[in-house]
Amino acid sequence: MISIKILKSENKMCLSCMKEHEVQYVEIMEENIFRGEKVQFSARYEYCTNTRELTTYEESVDSNDISFKNAYRDKMGLLSIDEIIEIRKQYGVSQKDFSKILGWGPSTITRYEGHQVQDNIHDDVLRKIKKDSKWFIELLERSKSELSSKAYAKYKSKAKKIFYKDKNDFLVNAILAKYSNIGKKLLLTGGKEIDLDKVVEVINYLAQNAKKLYKVKLMKLLWYSDNLNYKRK
Description:
single chain, alpha+beta, 4 strands
């Protein structure tokens, strides 16, 4: 027996019985095969209570196919359409320009955000792009000549912000991992819990302005910076 979930009802001309009455918009679970794999997915239809028949309506043609393809993606461990869109929007890139940056066909991303399922290699590339903003910047530089100057500047600015944020997060986590209990040792931090965000900003500033910044030199500069800050208060 098919389990039917009623989403909404609307009084209209029913295409199943060709009479005007309250037609239900319903969702059911279906099963189909894609690339040799059997998958279950949710599909939407109009339901006629007179004929007890399900009828596809205009909007459901696309949505049912996408639901089917996303179910396959989920089973095979591939990125969903929404995840692909999220990765692209992470860098504020248009579909066409994203394909150019990745060195793919001009409409590849458009198809992947629609009804075409990406292969494993392209899926791996998209996952790497999501995690590695530095690599995205490298690809952006390689495809610079294919983009407008305005688009290139916009994408690079966005990517650099993500890159610096990722770098800062990595540095904060590295400090936390090494000095996980430093917040409890307030005698070592002047009686105040350390603000790691400020520490990272100082390290970034020193890295940009000091030559040959090795570990010992960095530690000394951090000590002097903290001492100077204390004297100024």
